Amino acid sequence: MAAGSPPAASPARMECVLRGACAAMAAAGALLLGLSAQTKTVLFIQRKAVPKDVQALWVLIVAASAASGYHVVQLARCLYMSRLAVAGDGAGGCRRLSRGITCVTFLLDKGCAYMVFATTVAALQACFVGLVGVEALQWSKLCNIYTRFCEQAAAGMICSMLAAGGMAVVSAFSDRELFRRRRPCSSPAAAAGARQCARL
Fold first, then answer.
1. pLDDT of residue 191
2. In this protein, which residues make up the domain named Casparian strip membrane protein (predicted)?
3. Rounded to 5, what percent of the chain is helix, strand, coil?
């Protein structure tokens, strides 16, 4: 049993690392976008560019912040469960994490990845208009005026896209855990308990 412990612990450790990276990247994206602001004088009038001027950027800040908080909570749960698995025996692991919690985690991981990816793509599309302009609608380019704001927003969206990719990988761990929980516990202790119940 001791020889089989490292392979079982390795996916849990990798999941913890990935969740920490996703939380850090999503938080970095939200901070870069939230703190991006630049003031310029345009036609003798001072104008300040802030993320709220582009609604898609503001939605991305909220989505990335929520995703970061969610993955911090999941990271704490993952560390707690791995500590319980190390402290306790292997048979108790199936009882500690119910199938319902596993299903909820699976759905939340998928939804979180889709939410961050969708809001990032929407923000990219909205900012692309500011980058190249739309001559048919007489929308002029804005990134040649608010250069620092656009660069910081681009860095924030890159972090958010990397976070969305990491969340997609994390959801694969949720898939594995969900389908692993569908199989009944097959440890010797669980089998002995089932045989004892059958005698009664």
1. 44
2. 12-164
3. 80, 5, 15
Task: Estimate to the nearest angstrom the gap between the alpha carbon of 128 and the chain centroid.
Answer: 24
User: What is the distance between the alpha carbons of residues 150 and 54, in angstroms, rounded to a whole number?
Assistant: 12
Residue 139: partners with Cβ closer than 8 Å, 6 or more residues away: 129, 133
Q: What share of the chain in percent tops pLDDT 90? A: 22
Q: Tell me which residue has tokens 């500690």.
A: 96
Q: Is 12 exposed, middle or buried (0-12, 13-18, 19+ CB in 10 A)?
A: middle
CA of residue 94 relative to chain centroid, distance: 26
47: confidence class by pLDDT, cuts 50, 70, 90? confident
Q: How confident is the model at residue 119 (pLDDT cuts 50, 70, 90)?
A: very high
Q: What is the rounded distance in angstroms from the CA atom of residue 95 to the CA atom of residue 81?
A: 12
User: What number of other Cβ atoms are within 10 A of residue 65's Cβ?
Assistant: 17
